Amino acid sequence: MIIVMKPKAKQESIDRVRAIIEEKGLYAHISAGHEVTIIGVVGDKTKLMDQNLEIYDEVDKIVAVTESYKLANKKFHPEPTQVKVGNITIGGDTMVIMSGPCAVENRQQLLTTAHAIKKAGAHILRGGAYKPRTSPYAFQGLEEEGLSYMKEAREETGLPVVCEVTSLDAIESAVKYVDMLQIGARNMQNFYLLKEAGKTGLPVLLKRGLSATIDEWLNAAEYIIAEGNPNVVLCERGIRTFETATRNTLDISAVPAIKSKSHLPIIVDPSHAAGVRAYVKSLSMAAVAAGADGLMIETHPDPSTALSDGPQSLTFDQFENLTGELGPLVKLLGKSL
Ligand code: PEP
Ligand code: MN
Q1: Which atom of ligand 1 is the closest one to the Cα of 182?
Q2: Which of 301, 336, 317, 337 is closest to 111 using CA atoms?
Q3: In this structure, are residues 298 and 256 in contact, taking their beta carbons and an 8 Å threshold?
Q4: According to DSSP H, which parts of 31-187 are helical?
């Protein structure tokens, strides 16, 4: 349920409504806009049945919210959310590019990549230190050693860093080294992990589950925000379909769908969607044109020797070529790279 106050409603009117909500043991989520303040009611709204809130001063209308997610819902929070990661803002005027290797393999590989992507215009360095691989025999990541290289790369380049976390132990280690936590597709509905990531207060990049609907994805975001952490960025990375020509199917419609249902920023990962290096540029262009707030692109000094996701990783030249070609499109949309 949301309560829309009349334009320019007085603070005392807003406070009165808030007090009624809180007296019933519910949470009032206040979203103060320039003109209109919206109060979202979180909790069992049947407890308000005996209250006719419409009679209170300066209450304009009461709107029922049918979706189960509230805090991630645009109806509760009409203004777009901007998420700060280090000195970078996602969801503002900058098309934020995250790039780096699928897995941190060694110090040299990561530092070389960090410098190369910075030179090509990337804003945030990505790198996996905990790799949730399909096969238990595949490279599983350098764990804390990998995180320490991420931190070093940030110190050398000034780029904020994001790393996937797959367990509580990984979260405990990662908070010491990184600027943003990533929850991967395979853990999108690991609700315990979502809550623990939310508690850290660090911004969280929440990837869409392999077969998750938009509704399930936004409910997953709700778990993080409900821990008092509003800094959630969504990442569309392709969903599982019958198609086998690509690793996944990039659901480009997720971008406008999320924009219409939620205030959270959304970026697109064309690398994991395509699984094929040659398709990454087209999908990046499509994502930017559809209104994404950023991109996540895998790069590697020598993709042919990569320990994971080599076939979809770009060389540094290919990445620089991509950012160069994105420039005019981003400008056309009134944003900057
Ligand atoms: C990744 O970003 O390296 C990754 C494993 O992605 P996803 O969770 O989308 O498969
Ligand atoms: Mn990968």
Answers
A1: 2
A2: 301
A3: no
A4: 107-119, 144-157, 168-174
pTM of the model: 0.93
Contact between 252 and 260 under an 8 Å Cβ cutoff? The reply is no
Tell me how far apart the alpha carbons of residues 274 and 209 are, in angstroms, rounded to a whole number: 15
Q: Which residues pair with 181 in a beta bridge?
A: 163, 204
Q: Cβ(191)–Cβ(155) under 8 Å?
A: no
Ligand 1 centroid, distance to 60 Cα (angstroms): 45
In the numeric block, which tokens belong to residue 242?
């019958």
> Within 10 A of 261 (CB to CB), how many other CB atoms are there?
18
Domains and CATH numbers, the chain: 2-63 (3.30.70.1140), 83-332 (3.20.20.70)
**Given the DSSP bridges, would you call strands 37-42 and 27-32 parallel, antiparallel or unpaired?**
antiparallel
Closest ligand 1 atom to 187 CA: 8
* Closest-approaching ligand to the CA atom of 240: 1
Residues paired with residue 232 on neighbouring β-strands, in sequence order = 204
Q: Check whether 49 has a pLDDT greater than 90.
A: no
The pairing of beta strand 59-63 with beta strand 180-183: unpaired
User: Quick one: which atom of ligand 1 is closest to the CA of 132?
Assistant: 5
Look at residue 52 and tell me whether its pLDDT is greater than 90. Answer: no
